[in-house]
Amino acid sequence: MSLNIAYKYKVQVPEVSQRKLEGLKVKRRYPGKIPLVIGRVKNSNLSELAKCKFLFPATATVGDLCHYINSKLHRTEEAPMYIYANSELVVSKGSVIAEVYQEYREDDFFLYLGYYEENVYADIGRES
User: Fold this and answer.
1) Calpha distance 75→55 (Å, rounded)
2) What is the pLDDT of residues 47-75, one digit of tens each?
3) CA-CA distance, 58 to 99, in Å (whole number)?
4) Domain harbouring 99, CATH code
5) pLDDT by residue (tens digit) across 96-123?
6) Which listed residue, 21, 74, 77, 117, has the most CB atoms within 10 A of its CB?
7) Does residue 63 belong to any structural domain of this protein?
8) Is 127 a domain residue?
9) 3-class state of residue 109 by DSSP
10) Are 85 and 100 in contact (CB under 8 A)?
11) Domain assignment of residue 97, yes or no
């Protein structure tokens, strides 16, 4: 059972080799930043972000990322949100983005993360 997260970037650039070239270029050009691709978990009540690719400071935390996403979605800072890496792991808000990147980045040098609002009673987009 895994989360169903649609990553627009993988649809826009289906060739892994092309994404890998872009990921390498970004890592070389911005060494203190982490290239992220962020997608919304299917069946989430949250809106989709206008952009799907981001450069985020390596020293920032997942909590900082949640704050950023909430601001882009015009939600209050206190609005609960889950962040997933590899479509299954719920990432701790205290985790440093650089550490999450080292552990979960894909071969194309991007870190793919999904977001979902906290809702105890809702189906979170899992497929059986």
Assistant:
1) 21
2) 889 899 999 999 999 999 999 999 999 98
3) 8
4) 3.10.20.90
5) 999 999 999 999 999 999 998 865 555 5
6) 117
7) yes
8) no
9) coil
10) yes
11) yes
